[in-house]
Amino acid sequence: MGKQTIGQPVAGQAGWRWVTERGLRVATGETTLARYRLLVSRALPDVEDIVPADDSLLLVLKRGAALPPSVRAALIEPLDEPSGAASGTRHEIAVDYGGAAGPDLNALARQAGMSEATYIERHAATEYTVAFLGFQPGFPYLRGLPDTLQAARRASPRQRVPAGSVAIGGRYTGIYPADGPGGWHLVGRVHAALFDPQRQRPALLMPGDRVRFVPS
Question: Of 40, 133, 158, 178, which is most buried, counting CB atoms within 10 Å of its CB?
Fold first, then answer.
């Protein structure tokens, strides 16, 4: 086949666009996780990797592979559970909320017009879904944060956020797997290891997994 043109759309498919010669970005919206699981389950021989992102998938085709009919068919096949929210491993993760572990909790609670205790209760009452991983290895973007708890990212990022910090950034809550800079608001900290390269599955949380926080 000839080389794909970066930025070129796929004829007849709205929201499909080549982002590299082998990378195809497909806009999938709320069906992202369900479509991701379907594609992974097929073990398509012409696909080297599948990366879920925010309402889209990136398919990396093997070198020299065009967009095969089997891949195209899997991308448009009707889904039994379009949201895909009910699948995945369920995790309960203990959290130390507030204090030194969550220095932004008080300010976020006041901004939301509630007490710290109420903010913690509402944050922990939600079952979140891992939408995708990014930023750091194993960093989960958790979807499901109630509207009343959402907050824009900090105007000035911290130079160092401790590993295990539970944070709020826009419509997501997340957990920092490692020390490093970060611009999200910190509300607590977990002791679970989010990423360990020595484990058989290095990332503790995977796209489609479900998370409940348990105040400790």
Answer: 133
